[in-house]
Amino acid sequence: xxxxLFFWLLIPIGFYHFLWEQGWSLTWLYAFIASxxxxxxxxxxxxxxxxxxxxxxxRLRPERGLLQALLSKKKSIRPRGSMAGQMLLDGPxxxxxxxxxxxxxxxxxxxxxxxxxxxxRLIRPEGGLELILAYNTPHFLPVEAELWDLAAQYPELRLLxxxxxxxxxxxxxxxxxxxxxxxxxxxxxxxxxxxxxxxxAWAWLRGGNYDVVQGRNIIRNHRKxxxxxxxxxxxxxxxxxxxxxxxxxxxxxxxxxSNGYWRxxxxxxxxxxxxxxxxxxxxxxxxxSHGVRIVHDPEIISYELAPVDLKxxxxxxxxxxxxxxxVALKYQFKLLFxxxxxxxxxxxxxxxxxxxxFFHAIAIQIFALTVHHWIWPRDVxxxxxxxxxxxxxxxxxxxxxxxTIANGRSIWHREGWFYTLIxxxxxxxxxxxxxxxxxxxxxxxRRWVVTPRHALKAKAKPPTASLSKSR
Length: 471
Known about the structure:
Blueprint: H1 2-21, H2 27-56, H3 66-71, H4 84-87, E1 96-103, H5 104-107, H6 111-121, E2 129-136, H7 142-153, E3 157-161, H8 168-176, E4 183-188, E5 192-193, H9 197-205, E6 212-219, H10 226-250, E7 260-263, H11 264-270, H12 279-289, E8 294-304, H13 310-331, H14 343-363, H15 365-375, H16 382-406, H17 414-443
Parallel strand pairs: 1-2, 1-4, 2-3, 6-8
Antiparallel strand pairs: 4-7, 5-8, 6-7
């Protein structure tokens, strides 16, 4: 980590000074990097506007692929045939297979409660339900006896101990070999889906237009501490605004590893790669390369747990960041030639992969340039510095806009301002995480550190997720 920070923070200053001494102007670097902040702010604003229209005007919801429709010069965008609530009445739901994946030494405190929540809350499909717990454990645990007692009470529960497994991907592949439902749903061990999740997901898959539906994940332990509080609003912005807005704009989405609903045959054909740190994003890209269509529906909700301390947060985000980098290096240029994606979708995925892998590492260079300017202040015009800080301030305001829209809060709501004011700290943390992830990838170091899971001491009512409701 020390080498990484030295390379990305100190060496660039020396490099910029070398260019400066050679007569190069650094103005163009300021303009380029600061403009990245501006582009990010504009994207956040566009996403926010899309979701305002989506939530506030449900009867006028456009079909997916808004930008495609505009670019193809269609005269109008036809509204969807029915609202999400009415889609449930269109036909029966076939048999569904629900897979819960767990590493029991880590999730032994929460797994019984998760399975009980799913068994008691999920509305049974007309075609039937099977719930498979695909787990691995290095040794026998007392909770396994309790799991067998639960399976005796609920015939639809099947316990699948995956011998020799060392990853979530291996557990999933073992479960995929035995599922019998027409739709397969995947949940992590801390997820509590809402009762109508299966019916809402099948409403998207039934017509054959889509193969995968990704729902919205909401943090249920948001009152634990300041970290979980911030992560809760971050997830509101991601799953309540950014992901569904991309789905609405260019008709593409990603499978986020949990609260995802697949056509079983499609998923069995893909399986999951246990060599990737983010097997979910890898499966997404491989699916897209084979013409799989994915949609995001923010009204399919599952409640999950956030990391409760910075150490767990760091480990989780470093794995995510390094996993996204692996996927970006593997698919960034290949996807430009995939027949199943149109120009708008390719552009969306190129931007997503570049942003997730390299934005923070590039964005930090603005600080290196600023330090250089403070030491040698004769090169960069003053108005460029003003432009730089103005754009970063605009980015913060756009983050606040997303936080405001995600759950229909007032612009003065304290959660939105808390998120906005704390975000610069997490921006720096994310920069450090990206630097370490880049260095680990360069060195060939790959570590999977599981996120600690602990049961909530007080069982609070799960937060709501709609513009018409508030937490």
